[in-house]
Amino acid sequence: MDPIRNPYAPGAGQRPPELAGRDEQLAAFDVVLERVAKGRPERSLVLTGLRGVGKTVLLNALRGAAVRKGWGTGKLEARPGQGLRRPLSSALHQAVRELGRSDEDSVDHVLGVVKSFAHRDAGAQARLKDQWNPGIDVPAVRGRADSGDIEIDLVELFTDLGGLAADAGKGIGIFIDEMQDLGADDVSALCAACHELSQSGLPVIVVGAGLPHLPAVLSASKSYSERLFRYQRIDRLARDAADRALEAPAADEDAAYEPQALAAMYDATGGYPYFIQAYGKAVWDLAPRSPVTAADVAVAAPEAESELAVGFFGSRYERATPGERDYLMAMADVAVAQAEAGADVEGEAVLSADVAAALGKKPQSLSPARDSLLKKGLVYSGERGRIAFTVPHFGRYLRERG
């Protein structure tokens, strides 16, 4: 079929042509937006899931819904070792600009507070040339959100933002991707600020996305975070949604799939959205005509797997040291042993002690490799003593790679 008309879009955070299987989350968020804008109590939202399930795509879709409601929005991506002040200041600058300028003085005051919050990152005595400039023209407001204590400053900043949004009859949404990579102090401050917002009823919400252990990260910071956020686990698509993700874009290009082809695609992708797009693209490019058959899927599968091996799996594998790769391979071997014992271990955790036993080493000696893999985002630990891959089908990739 014509590759120029190929509708599928495998890319990091790239919205697929058909956002299938997420209608429930989108509808629920519309209710949240309306309630918050009317001053009704509502919790901030946290999306969790493995790599490739579409968390970033859904986060962007939720932000788009907020924009359509007239909200001010800003987005940032947390990174290990990076403080929260600078990226959050940029995101909030954009959010305030999106709100509009109905009251010039109030807007300038809040932008000045954002600027003071950003400048505090360099230290109270920093020279002007050493201060990061968030692109805000108004002068910084001294004595507000600039104490140096991130928790105090963030509460003050969110309070002023919420007041501005309430006066405008709108809301502000702060969207944070890779939220598990925030530093411990920043997580604690963010939880405290959200707690203050929930008590005051100000129209500001935080929507975060991260790996499955994000709830544990938040809970370790503030015990009340379990009641502070509404958690939504984003998982692989059910069969009907996966079929729709393939069929709807094809129908727009006057193409179709045979039922056996759809079944073969689900078996190959496991319902993971990123894999659906990767296989969909490969099958479209190699299929001679419509409708797509199971034989077409079989022919295209090696092409899709090769692409995933390089761009999705391989790029992550290459970040690991030889010792860390041994640890990853041992995890895959332990998962196979569990599967042979009758357990369904796709995406499930294995015991760290079992991994150490597979390598013939003491668990303590493997702590450096394990901790490094955690920091690199290749594995996660949702509970003490257990470890799991952040990427679906990663164990299969390691075993096939040898």
Task: Offer a few descriptive terms.
Rossmann fold; three-stranded antiparallel sheet; Arc Repressor Mutant, subunit A; five-stranded parallel sheet; 402 residues; 53% helix
Supply the CATH superfamily name of the largest domain: P-loop containing nucleotide triphosphate hydrolases
Beta-strand residue percentage = 5-15%
- Helical element count? 16
Q: By helix and strand content, what is the structural category?
A: alpha/beta
| Spatial extent as radius of gyration | 23 Å
CATH class of the largest domain: Alpha Beta
Mean model confidence by pLDDT: 90
**Any low-confidence stretches, pLDDT <50, length ≥5?**
none
Protein name: Cytochrome c domain-containing protein
GO molecular function: electron transfer activity; heme binding; metal ion binding
Keywords: Heme, Iron, Metal-binding
InterPro entries: AAA_16, Cyt_c-like_dom, P-loop_NTPase
Secondary structure elements and pairings:
Blueprint: H1 23-37, E1 44-48, H2 55-68, E2 72-77, H3 85-99, H4 104-119, H5 150-168, E3 172-177, H6 184-200, E4 204-210, H7 214-221, H8 225-228, E5 229-233, H9 239-252, H10 259-269, H11 273-286, H12 294-317, H13 322-340, E6 350-351, H14 352-359, H15 367-375, E7 379-380, E8 386-389, H16 394-401
Parallel strand pairs: 1-4, 1-5, 2-3, 3-4
Antiparallel strand pairs: 6-8, 7-8
Helix pairs in contact: 1-2, 3-4, 4-5, 5-6, 10-11, 10-12, 11-12, 13-14, 13-16
